[in-house]
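Quick one, tokens below. Sequence please?
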């Protein structure tokens, strides 16, 4: 019996010792693993912080780049709008094809001219395999004449296209100008398309009053044709233009609004037509808003 009790006590002591050793070993493992875990967490935190900083730097660079003006011209910076170009193509539908053909023929003739010139030079230097000199000189004359001819045709078409697009652009700016009708409503000339044939009389007070008097003499035929007269007194003479007398006269006339824009358009038209600044001019529009006629007096 005492022997059995001793054995049990020994077993319990061994078990307790094993448990304590296991606990101690586990505690040591935890202590050893803790610095590694702390280091891993710190590394992950630093990595996230770096990614955030990189993302913020990228956004800052993009914002700075968007604030800088672009070197490429935008569509709004082009000389003529797409509507102007389309109207030009509609009014001269075969001009682009002609310019392509003339340009191709001129380039072909220029290439032939360079080849013929090279052959003539090599023959003059005594190359045995070069074509005869008189044949090369003849080819030079033909190619030179063709290059000049087709180049001239291309240049004329290009100049006509530029003039046409400039005229269309002026008509578009004119359509944006506003006037006040007899009802007090302010409309643009674009809104009057299809309803009125606008006639603008721009000059000093005497010129405007004389133009109105001349139109009054044939008021009824002009009203039947939907003519609307807009007198534009240039300079400081706005108060000197005769006011409309009756309701019929008011329907026959309109008053320009924002006259500085009207004056700027008239001055541009005068410079294009090489008219003196002090001359009175008139501009008549078609029903579709295109300029029908213009002149002095």
């Amino acid at each position: 019996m005492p022997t059995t009790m001793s054995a049990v006590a020994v077993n319990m002591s061994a078990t307790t010792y094993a448990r304590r050793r296991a606990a101690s070993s586990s505690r040591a493992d935890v202590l050893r693993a803790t610095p590694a875990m702390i280091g891993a967490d710190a590394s992950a935190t630093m990595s996230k912080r770096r990614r955030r900083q990189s993302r913020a730097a990228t956004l800052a660079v993009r914002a700075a780049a968007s604030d800088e003006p672009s070197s490429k011209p935008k569509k709004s910076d082009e000389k003529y709008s797409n509507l102007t170009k389309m109207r030009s193509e509609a009014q001269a539908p075969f001009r682009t094809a002609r310019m392509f053909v003339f340009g191709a023929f001129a380039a072909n003739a220029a290439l032939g001219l360079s080849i013929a010139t090279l052959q003539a030079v090599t023959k003059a230097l005594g190359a045995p395999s070069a074509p005869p000199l008189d044949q090369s000189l003849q080819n030079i004359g033909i190619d030179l004449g063709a290059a000049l001819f087709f180049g001239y045709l291309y240049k004329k078409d290009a100049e006509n296209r530029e003039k046409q697009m400039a005229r269309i652009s002026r008509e578009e700016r004119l359509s944006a100008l506003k006037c006040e009708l007899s009802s007090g409503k302010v409309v643009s000339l674009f809104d009057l398309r299809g309803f009125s044939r606008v006639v603008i009389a721009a000059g000093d007070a005497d010129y405007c009053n004389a133009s109105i008097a001349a139109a009054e003499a044939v008021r009824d035929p002009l009203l039947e044709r939907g003519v609307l007269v807009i007198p534009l007194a240039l300079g400081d003479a706005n108060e000197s233009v005769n006011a409309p007398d009756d309701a019929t006269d008011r329907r026959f006339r309109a008053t320009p609004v924002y006259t500085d824009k009207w004056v700027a358009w008239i001055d541009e038209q005068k410079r294009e037509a090489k008219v003196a600044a002090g001359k009175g001019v008139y501009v008549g529009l078609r029903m579709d808003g295109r300029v029908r006629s213009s002149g002095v007096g």
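The first strand starts at residue 178 and ends at 180. The CA atoms of residues 99 and 282 lie 35 Å apart.
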